[in-house]
Write a structure and sequence with these properties.
The chain has 158 residues and is mainly alpha-helical. The chain has helices at residues 2-15, 23-46, 51-62, 68-75, 79-91, 113-137, 141-152; strands spanning 66-67, 95-99, 107-111. The protein has a 3-stranded antiparallel beta sheet. A hairpin with a 7-residue loop joins strand 2 and strand 3 (107-111).
Length: 158
Amino acid sequence: MAGTSNQNSAAIEAHEDQHGLDYELIELLFFAYRDFTSDPDVILEKRGFGRAHHRVLHFVDREPGMTVADLLDTLKITKQSLARVLKQLIDSGYIHQIAGPEDRRQRKLYTTKDGKALARALAEPQSRRIADAIARSGPGARDVVTRFLAGMKNAAED
């Protein structure tokens, strides 16, 4: 038993430094994010877009008719940060906006046919990557991953 206790202690020390920081998981998250975004990055680059365009397109496609204010709140960015990206997506024909029925100043956002196709093209490789990783992780992995990722979000967002 003493050998097992020493092995467990060594395993914990391998994952944490003297301040209790879990560098192994931090690095895995960095690398997972890098690879998770790599496939869409290639598609976006061909159109002169970046990750900000991806985020805007994703959420507008997932919630048709969302307002600019809702999008700002979802992305936690400023109007100024959103303005350039949204203008490029509108000018390129991926998103269109219409005035709200009650308040003409309110702008509701929708993906166009091309916008829907691009959003799907960006999501497909990410969905495959997630499905492959979950399949390799064993039964019940999806629930564990879902709880883990939900736990990583700021509580105020729920």
